[in-house]
Amino acid sequence: MRRSSLLFLTAAALLAGACDAPGPPASRTARVPAALRREALSVKGLPVDTAFAREVREAFLHAWRAYEAHAWGHDALRPLSRGWRDWYASTLLMTPVDAYDTMLLMGLDDEARRAKELILENLSFDRDMTVQVFEVNIRILGGLLSAHQMDGDGRWLELARDLGDRMLPTFASPTGLPHVRVNLATGAVEGTENNPAEIGTLTLEFGLLSELTGDPRYHDAVKAAVSRLHAQRSTLGLVGSAIDIENGDWLNPTSHVGGGIDSYYEYLLKAWLLFGDEDFKAMWEAGRQALETHLAHEVDGRLWYARVDMLTGERVATRFGALDAFLPAVLALGGDLERAARLQESVALMWETFGVEPESFDYVTLERGHPGYPLRPEAIESAYYLFVLTGDERWREMGKDLFRRVVAATRVDAGFAHLKDVRTGEKDDAMESFFLAETLKYAWLLAVPTALDFDAVVFNTEAHPLRPVE
């Protein structure tokens, strides 16, 4: 693939400077075999729910056909106006890249073929535009890597490597912590105030890119960044909400498990499972213990995770929300099935209280915070993890109920629409790509748990299944 020479000159200069910067080295520990990494293994032989599978497949096709009809070749569908939206000046084909592996898992061969042709014939990263590293990483790089591993076409990996090269300059800071945005053509970077999620949620994709290409630069950059972030945690073992990447100083000391921190913890565990690097396992265990000690909060017999000051442990808010609902899945994956089950029951309360979960609410007063619902997957994701790791049908039934609530509240003639307010049902003219990549994929896997071997993959935070390279 043709690359901009300016990009490589800029990237080389920036990365040379980053290599001289202070910070922990990206050490390479001995690899632990994949079979020995998992604390919890899935239950084999779980039955297929054929009727539910038909519901999920129909919902996916309804969403995808609306995208084909009204937004083909663009990033996302606008379902109310029957139009389209691109994130940047040029399309990155977010919806087809994000949805491709869901199509493969569902056996939608014709749809997958059309999506693949569109992507391989049109997707180019040689664009003079500045993108958010986090979102492009989890949606596009993660989707390309998963596509390569699932269908074996080397062109996916060529695209992934090109994108990885263009995003590498983001790590050129005095601390090695990544910037928020990078220009894909010039390597120019922006955003020195970052957060743990956007820093820590690059590890799986960049690390796997190194494994598949034999080029250690991607792995070394992300491991150095995560190691530095871990080293900046407070004496209580907690991270805050915002950090200055130029000096490592915390700009917001609030610690929580919601958006801005959430997938930092997720990727510590999953990097251990994907790569067998015990450094990540140690960081995950330290983080998990700090969360249990300082954030876990019992209210009326229910388990929640509060917001606290990272320096003192003082509770500053009792806010929980849709993004926090990833945690039962991660706790279950880490082997703590009891705590995962208790927290998932609390997640279900959000849905029971409002019909569909709001972005956030106060779990003490049960008052709604941010009222919207942008088709998020995390609650269904956690139900899926608990189902496959326990075999208990109550988790599948919970996931089915959540899925049906989503369909009933958000389906429109041309796809599915975000909710502006879960109380009124007012809709917003948007259908994010993660609805097809995550929400509908996890619903499908609840229906058809045999569609993949859960123990053989690690899902990135956009639900792209990635396989260890042994």
Would you spell out the secondary-structure blueprint of this structure?
Elements: H1 5-19, H2 50-70, E1 76-78, E2 83-85, H3 94-106, H4 109-122, E3 130-132, H5 133-151, H6 154-167, E4 181-183, E5 189-190, E6 193-194, H7 196-200, H8 203-213, H9 217-231, E7 242-244, E8 250-252, E9 254-255, H10 262-275, H11 278-294, E10 296-299, E11 302-305, E12 307-309, E13 315-317, E14 319-321, H12 327-333, H13 337-354, E15 360-362, H14 378-390, H15 393-410, E16 411-412, E17 415-416, E18 418-419, E19 427-428, H16 434-447, E20 458-459, E21 465-466
Antiparallel strand pairs: 1-2, 3-4, 4-5, 6-7, 7-8, 9-12, 10-11, 12-13, 14-15, 16-17, 18-19, 20-21
Which ranges are low-confidence, i.e. pLDDT below 50, for 5 or more consecutive residues? 1-27
Total of DSSP H or I helical runs spanning 4+ residues: 16
Mean pLDDT: 94
Percentage of residues in strands: 5-15%
CATH top level class name = Mainly Alpha
Overall tally of domains: 1
Structural class: mainly alpha
* Quaternary structure annotation: single chain
Return Rg in Å.
21 Å
